[in-house]
Amino acid sequence: MKLRRNLYLVPITLVATGIVAGGLLLGDLAGRANSGIGVGSRFAGYVQNWTVVLWVCCVVGVVGVIWLIWYCLKLTGGITSITRRLDDNNLMDSCFGGNAKKKRDGNPVINELSRALSERLDSYTNRNIVLERQIQDLQIQIQLSQRQKRNTEAIIYSIRDAVIVIDEFDKLLMANEAAGKLFDFDFRNSQHRPVGELIDTANNEFVDFLHQSRQGKIRHTKREIDFSRDDGPKTFDCIVSCVYDERERVCGVVAVLHDITREKEISQMKNDFVSHVSHELKTPLASITAYSEMLSDGEAEDEQTREEFYSVIQSQAKRLNRLIEDILNVSRIESGLIKVDKKPVSLAILIEEQLQMIKGYAEEKDIEIISQKPIVFDQVYVDKDMISQVIVNLLSNAVKYTPARGSVKIESEVDEIAGMARVSVTDTGVGIPEDELEHVFDKFYRVVANKNCAKGTGLGLNLVKQIVEKVHDGRVFVTSEPGVGSTFVFELPLATTETAEAVKNSGW
Amino acid sequence: MAGKKVLVVDDEIHIVHVVAIKLRNNGFEIVTAANGAEAFELVSSEKPDIIVTDFQMPVMTGLELVEKIRQNEATKDIPVILLTARNFAIEDKQKEDLQISDCLSKPFSPKELLRSIQDILHHKAVVQANR
């Protein structure tokens, strides 16, 4: 390297020698020209030998100048090469192809510098590309997670059950619309508020339950909680689950509240129903058992008593069968399994048949049956057995809930415009309180105040509604005044060709 | 047991009828009522030796009848047999508190009812004789 660095001294020395030699040669030539005056002639031979030397030196000097020029040109060529390489690198082509390396020539120092710079530049460029890709990936990931967050929120918001998520300080992280509605707070703008503040103090049991579940670190806990609300008390099935972080610490809890008010009511109704039904089934069964035992033990002393016992057994067996049929019919109609045989039937004949059936019961209770005559002769398009059941249920209910010496009236009329026949059964019975009117057709429902007036399963009116509305596309409704009486009305389609077709097409 | 008076209370007329026949055939005197309220009126006037009553009845239930009887000094010691078509209609403690002598579930055997009545009256007679 040292040797290389000194190389530039050689042409400089050569050029200096050339310049000195050139100067002396010019001086000699000038001396010769002035020799005529007398000064130079003295040195004439001496000068001739020096001229040759000077000429040689001049040639050497010229060679030195040419070398210097060549050297300068070469130096310039090296820088140009670096500049070109840098330009190439800026274009980034050389980073991948490496074609520039092949072009590298000239000064090894410059080449090395150029290569080092180029490699550094290459690595920076590569890192830049990698980082840019990473940024793009992260941006995509951010977009994805934002979309995922929105989806998750949309899912939680749309859940029908109330969902509440709280952190480890009992502050709200998230709640859905159902939760906001249940506890009456703005579910979108209540984040980070203490849950105890959001939920009314009347519902402290739930707040305590959340707190206890978090403290107890139990993964899932369940409790039935009654909530007091403006629209009446409601029962919710509350499932609280602890959320654990990566260090297995409880970082919050999720509570899901499912409204089971209706299920509880249904469950209670079913329990009541089983209790009613068992009582209703056991009553005729008790008579059958007792009278059979009396007969087999010879307790019936004469033929007349025996006949009486047989007749009681038969009537109680029929009563038992009727009850079982009622239960089965309700269940069959509900499940859509019942066979319906619709035909044009005379409404007058149907009513007359059922009046005969109920006569004995009404006489037993000293109740007058009033039947409008002549009744409607139009035909209705119905299942005869089912509509007989409707009429007998309404008539027997009317007699059942009417005190002795009262009356039960059955009327019918035709609404030709609507294509319907209307039958009404009016009694002078105990009546139904207004707030209970909408429930009388519910399955197993029995009017609270009238429960002690008569026995029943709470199935009769439900069966009426199912038969008239579900099977016959008709309508049934009631008006009543407690202490005065009730009127039950049902409407059925008339047996015209159009209605017959329409009913047939409806699938029944 | 001849001449002992039994008050039979049930809203099911057939049950009252069959119990009455069974007991009459065995020498008992019978008084009947269709519900608790009717029965309560008869208790004071008829002074039965024992009451056989249904549990679930309109107007006044069998349990309400027993509660009222127990409150009255003159009637508080009358033995009562409860007939019921309901399972678990009455708890043991309630049965003890109201001094219900026996509880038969429907369907019941008239023979069994007769035996129960005889046992209770016999026991009552023994207790009274020992006093």
Descriptive report:
By secondary structure, chain A is of the alpha+beta class. Chain A is built from 15 helices and twelve strands. In chain A, helix 3 runs parallel beside helix 6, helix 11 (303-335) packs across helix 14 (460-471) and helix 13 (384-400) packs antiparallel against helix 14 (460-471). Chain B has 131 residues and is an alpha/beta fold. Chain B is 47% helix and 20% strand. Chain B has helices at residues 13-25, 36-46, 62-71, 92-97, 110-130; strands at residues 5-9, 29-33, 50-54, 80-84, 100-105. Chain A binds chain B through residues 275, 278-279, 282-283, 285-291, 293-294, 297, 299-301, 305, 312, 316, 452-455, and chain B through 11-12, 14-15, 17-19, 21-22, 25, 56, 58-59, 61, 85-87, 106-111.
A few lines on this structure:
Chain A has 508 residues and is of the alpha+beta class. Helix content of chain A is 56%, strand content 17%.
**Molecular shape of chain A:** rod-shaped
- Unreliable residue runs of chain A: 36-41, 91-102
Distance between the ends of chain A: 111 Å
Work out the count of structural domains of chain B: 1
Quaternary structure: heterodimer
Give the tally of β-strands of chain B.
5
State which percent range the strand residues of chain A make up: 15-25%
Question: What is the mean predicted local confidence, pLDDT of chain B?
Answer: 90
Itemize the secondary structure elements and their pairings.
The complex is a heterodimer of chains A (508) and B (131).
Chain A: H1 2-6, H2 9-33, H3 44-90, H4 93-97, H5 99-103, H6 108-158, E1 162-167, E2 172-175, H7 177-183, H8 195-198, H9 204-216, E3 220-227, E4 234-244, E5 250-259, H10 261-296, H11 303-335, E6 342-346, H12 347-364, E7 368-371, E8 379-383, H13 384-400, E9 407-415, E10 420-427, H14 460-471, E11 475-481, E12 485-493, H15 497-505
Parallel strand pairs in A: 7-9
Antiparallel strand pairs in A: 1-2, 1-5, 3-4, 4-5, 6-8, 9-10, 10-12, 11-12
Helix pairs in contact in A: 2-3, 3-6, 10-11, 11-14, 12-13, 13-14
Chain B: E1 5-9, H1 13-25, E2 29-33, H2 36-46, E3 50-54, H3 62-71, E4 80-84, H4 92-97, E5 100-105, H5 110-130
Parallel strand pairs in B: 1-2, 1-3, 3-4, 4-5
